[in-house]
Amino acid sequence: MEVNLSQVGELLGLFNQTQITELNLKSGDFELTLRKGDRAVIVTAPAVADAPLTQELPLVVPSTPPETPTPPPGSKKLVDVLSPMVGTFYRAPAPDEDPFVEVGETIRHGQTVCIIEAMKLMNEIEAEVNGQVVEILVQNGEPVEYGQALLRVNPS
Question: Which of 15, 71, 75, 132 sees the fewest Cβ atoms within 10 Å?
Answer without folding.
Answer: 75
